[in-house]
Amino acid sequence: MKLSIKLIGILVCISLLTACVGLGGLKKSQIKVLQKEGFVYSDEGWLLDLPSRLLFATGEYLLQPAQEQTIATLSKKLEKIKLDKLIIQGHTDNVGTEAANQLLSEQRAKSVADVTFANGFQPENVQVVGYGSTKPTASNDTEEGRSENRRVSVIIAP
To answer: Quick check: is 32 in a domain?
Structure first.
């Protein structure tokens, strides 16, 4: 009987520790804000794909004023809850050359990063990465799919 109680206690402790690790080591209050903003936990960490709020026209990397405001607001919320390390990933569809898409994806990520810098993030805490067309989330066979792939993702860095 005592062995069973000890075993159950150990299993409960392991479960609790596993749950904490699975949440990326963040506090519940931080997770609540991230989920409210649309972040989901993925194998990369807490990820916010911004296609619904941040899409680009073919060949474009400049943000519209409404998009800048969205990123500024998000930046302030993240800073408020002490999440000040980001990985910003730029993506493209498969239209154009590989080299052009690589550069364009980097420019897209940088345009988002620049807004975070203007709103309190330190450049040394923001990693900017371009993936070109190598990580599509939709098929590039349709205009709708290509549109979804012209995006920026924001990941909360550990």
So the answer is: yes
